[in-house]
Amino acid sequence: MLKEFKTFAMRGNVIDLAIGVIIGGAFGKIITSFVNDIIMPPIGLLMGKVNFADRFIPLDGKTYETLTLAQEAGAPTINYGLFINTIIDFVIIAFVIFLLIRQINKLSKPAPVEQTTKDCPQCFTAIPIKATRCPHCTSELT
Q1: How far apart are CA 41 and CA 33, in angstroms?
Q2: What is the mean pLDDT of residues 31-53?
Q3: What span, in angstroms and rounded, lies between the C-alpha atoms of 75 and 60?
Q4: For the chain, how many structural domains are there in total?
Q5: Are 13 and 35 found together in one domain?
Q6: In angstroms, rounded to a whole number, what is the distance separating the alpha carbons of residues 123 and 55?
Q7: Cα(40)–Cα(53) distance, integer angstroms
């Protein structure tokens, strides 16, 4: 069983998957930073200096200045601002992956296959493209 596991783990697909997961995790961190540090501040500024990370609803009925203060007080909160950030993260990651897969599909299209045969107009048998007479029905080809 250990030998089978080693064979499975050393397959190219498993190693490729592991590398993809590691790179994906790092890419996710980059996108999260991009959203939190680059995208959301201008959006917050345009919406009246709103910091989405501090947008929350305390469920204990009290008022808190920031999410951190509410969490320190042990108040249960609905953190809809963080949820909005996460949705934007997802949309950006999904769009980048879409563009990446689109490019890969464009690059991996098979080259057009050159025709080597044609059909005889009389007997409809496949014959070499350079043939001048059909070997099956002997009709002359143009």
Answers
A1: 12
A2: 83
A3: 6
A4: 2
A5: yes
A6: 77
A7: 9
Tokens linked to 49:
């200096």
Which residue type occupies 121?
P
Domain that holds residue 123: 114-142
Which helix (H) or strand (E) is 16 found in, with range? Answer: helix 12-33
Does residue 104 sit in the same domain as residue 134? Answer: no
pLDDT digits (tens, 9 = 90+) for 82-137: 898 888 888 888 888 888 888 888 887 777 888 889 999 889 999 998 888 899 89
Tokens of 84: 């909005």
Instruction: Map residue 118 onto helix, strand or coil.
Output: strand
pLDDT recorded at residue 59: 93
Distance CA 21, CA 87 (A): 20
Domain shared by 79 and 92, yes or no = yes
CA–CA separation, 37 and 56 (whole Å): 19
Quick one: CA torsion of 54, 82, 30, 34, rounded to 10 degrees? -60
Q: Is the dihedral of CA 33, 37, 43, 47 positive or negative?
A: positive
The torsion angles phi and psi of 71, rounded to 5 degrees, stand at -70, -40
